[in-house]
Amino acid sequence: MTTDHHIMNTHLHTLEEIKLLEQERGNSVEFIHPTPFRAVKTSLDGQRKCFINICSCDRVGKPECRSGVSEEGRRGWCWSLPHSLHPGRQDTDGKGNKIVIYDVVFHPDTLHMAGKNKRFMDMVDDAAIRGIQGAFKVTLDHKNVKEARTKYKGTPQPCVIRRPIPGVSARESFIDLQDFRCSRDSAQSPRPKEIIVTVDLPLLKSASDASLEVKDKTLLLESRKPAYRLELPLAYPVDEDRGEAKFNKQKRQLAITLPVLPPGSFRESVRKPE
């Protein structure tokens, strides 16, 4: 959320917690911070605008080429373009229209070749679109893909590379990283014991200069000097009476811990909307 002067960053779970969850599924995870290369614009399911951020990271597999035969029987070269996909996230454009953003990460060598050859760039775009459609079961307009004016749409986010842990049997689970993002498109996730919200407040000198209110499934943080305001919907109803807030003066960071109400509790049932 953008304030008058700065941006507040919020996180429901730490990266370490996500690593532990993935280990229970038999996966090792690596968090990468991709480098923006180009963004393209298309449409999602024929209903809303969609942006695909094409990015690079040397932790993704390098492109590979081998000889092969096409479906028409012609000999040629077959390219393999490894890439990592990030779940789509909701956002809005400058006019307030809802959009969806995906990140697709390739090896720098792949994008280096794409930058010199349009046909290779088309292959990269095609691989990104097919990857998104296959992984997230959506339909993108393949015929009307245009390059965006910016290299990256939205706020950059870390991506995840999952690899199976050799010799470890995964416990059956249906948890995805998007379950722990604070957004309306997040899937329903296993109920946590508490929600931790970390807010960066670089101009705030003391916690007494800000007011914090937690009610039902909403967190509201405000201050006048400096001018900050954050209204955050929470994924679960919380017990505001037992919540804690600690302000780190060195980091200028407010950590808010909110116990989640157990399912079926009286207080939760009372707060459910009609």
UniProtKB/TrEMBL annotation:
Q: Matching InterPro entries, A to Z?
A: PIH1/Kintoun_subfamily, PIH1_N, PIH1D1/2/3_CS-like
Q: Which domain of life is it from?
A: Eukaryota
A Gene Ontology biological process term: axonemal dynein complex assembly
Q: Which residues cross the membrane?
A: none
PIH1 N-terminal domain span: 15-167
Gene Ontology cellular-component terms listed: cytoplasm; extracellular region
Q: In what residue span(s) does the PIH1D1/2/3 CS-like domain sit?
A: 172-261
UniProt lists the family membership as follows: Belongs to the PIH1 family.
What is this protein called in UniProt? PIH1 domain containing 2
